[in-house]
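Table S2 (text version). Query chain:
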Amino acid sequence: MIEHRQLQRLVDRLVAAGAPGAAGSATDETGTRQVASGLADLGSGRPMRADLRFRAGSLTKPLVATVVLQLVAEGRLSLEDTVERWLPGILPYSDQLAVGRLLNHTSGVPDYIGPVYAALYQSAEARLRSWAPRDLVALVADQPPRSAPGAAWSYSNTGYILLGLIVEAASGSPLGHELDRRILEPVGMGGTVFPERSADLPSPSSRGYSLPVGPDGAARDGPLLDLTAQDPSWAWAAGALVSTLEDLVAFFRALLGGRLLPARLLAEMLATVPVPPASIPLPLYDRYGMGLVELDTPAGRLVGHQGGIPGFLSVVLSTPDGRRQLALMVNALNAPDPVYEALIDAGRAVGGRLLAGR
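Corresponding structure-token output:
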């Protein structure tokens, strides 16, 4: 287990490294320990708390993947279905793309995120712009695939936008409705919402900050920017979720404990492909499954996901049986390098101790 004082030292280290605030949660058979350090609001001096809401970024992906696999379990779609079947004409090569390839990022679909992400840092107008999901896909529709389907791993937020649209086509309901009825309500994730348009975070929440980013998308030195207010439609099924550490831990415990998927589809979700070294900005995983990452530690493997979105960076790691979790959040993206180094160390070293039960 991870003791309270160990977890406190970890989040204190994240703040000392340059994060405005940090929060952590560790759960095992003995219960849950939650800690916080630093500030949730630099302007008012309001302290960070472990129960505050934050933008969960790509931690949205495991929930979307779970809904897709639930629809597979119900026979309403198949992992072998093509994108063309559900979204005719959305990409010139959509007849070559299988749903399963979108889930584990082996589709080769280019990522739309770069220019949109960089624009968020340049003006409030860009941060408050409302996007339709199909408009996000259209940003890369004239680009060739990065690789043939199945030939290589390449992280694609576009793939998860396509999955969100497929969920809507297969279910006949908005994605947010399906997330609510299939996951948030059954798991009891009362602090979690999937806001498709509102730029404000529901209270109580932390504010989110970032170092400046230039038009080329590269981080620059300077005072931290407050990026709390942003229309989340630019991330939609790839990263719009607002949640809490407690709720995200509850989701992974339910998923990996077998409450949300049949055993055969949970096994499919956990079947991973290698992630090329240096292909992701925060190397906190070694392989990728269907909406889940896999991380090697000295004590064995952990599974989970990380979430980065302007203002926040978070990670949830779990033992594969769902019995133990480590969850961390800092209210900054593009934070100083020592923050990232501390998070990586937390995942591999502290997470490993959680797995080992010591």
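Notes on Table S2: The radius of gyration is 19 Å. The CA atoms of residues 22 and 30 lie 23 Å apart.
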